[in-house]
TrEMBL record:
Span of the signal peptide: 1-25
UniProt region (Disordered), positions on chain: 20-44
Organism: Kribbella yunnanensis
InterPro entries assigned to the protein according to its UniProt record, in alphabetical order: Peptidase_S1_PA (IPR009003), Peptidase_S1_PA_chymotrypsin (IPR043504)
Protein name: Peptidase S1 domain-containing protein
Swiss-Prot/TrEMBL keywords: Signal
Amino acid sequence: MRQRLIVSVLLAVTAAVGSPSVAGASDPPVGQDQQPRQVGPSADELDRQEQMFSVFDPFYRKISKHPDGDGFAQAQVSEGVRSLILYWRGTIPKQVREFAANSVFPVELKPAKYSEADLGRLARSIKTRWNPHWGSYAGLSPEIGLSSFAVDWTPKAGVDPKGVARVLRQSVPGLGDSVRLHAAPALERTADDWRWNDSSPWNSGGGLALGDGGPDKTTCTLGPALRVNGAERFLTAGHCGAHDWVDGTGVAIGSTTFVSSLHDYQFVAANASGKVFVGAWNNYDGPTRNIEYLGGNAIGSWVCNEGANSGEHCSLQVYSSTVDTNGWTLWKASNPFSQSQVVNVGGDSGAPIISKGEVEATARGLNLGYTPSRGESCAGVPMRRSVSKCGSDVVYLSLSQIINHHPGATLIEY
């Protein structure tokens, strides 16, 4: 296992260069009965995961460019990172069978009803045929292994789901006879509350800015919120600097009260809602999820990065972890099936790392930056402010580790 990861690409979009500092601030001591928990896989599991994906990733990139790759459905790491399960729609190509037979780790091949490409085509096709009078279409939710999926939506009052399903069956080629509609996760939608125009109580994933809040100012992201000895404190990245923060319209959010120079996070005093923004950075409906759980981290788990500048990036899988020079674990996540996809940009520093359930969110970490070797071009990447720093992975601190470091700290939940 690598002993050190240097995250040299800092994701604060700053107007001035300087080290964050707070006069008189010092790292509060860890309570004797508050030793940080060990979260995640063992060293052996990390080694196996590293070996597994070093072999599978190049193969996937190769097969995804070949016509045979259209049948690929999903990959799943077994418990303990002992084997890899590949789900495939249709006849399994020879090169895939050879990959499984000759792999240095066990590979199990399983059938799938739909491929990844199938669902992409179906989702786009449904979008073109969706009637807004039915309600809001949110996409598709496949089961593990892609044996089935549901059409996510938020229905309008009085709309008959059976009638919607019947129209979709008749109008969307390849959808099949069994169309399952699934009420989309409960989202709070308000015309004025979005990542850059929120109000108290503030949501995680919202924008932090200086001055009048314009896009030419320093920007970072409100992370998860904690209650520390009774006081409400948002987390964000320490390298964002200690400031009096405002939102994108210049409305005051709160001020930095503490900076950990060792571990690169800070506290911002502000009233917290216990919710997190989801969706695109410019989604003016302001959808949120309720934060209901504090989660650990493990190799192979899936997370979302909720950055204020570039919005939501999900389908990120934790692919590695390392211990920094101060003894804290850093976790790394990326899109395993599109290794060069930009999932993290300047201004996303401090973003909450979450996983999403049916109607809730689990808070797992705090975005600090991206691996320098995984820097990518920012050309064409949707974001509020154009920046030059973009990466294809997310490097983040475990939220549990931060909480364990501060006796009396708890996650603010909705």
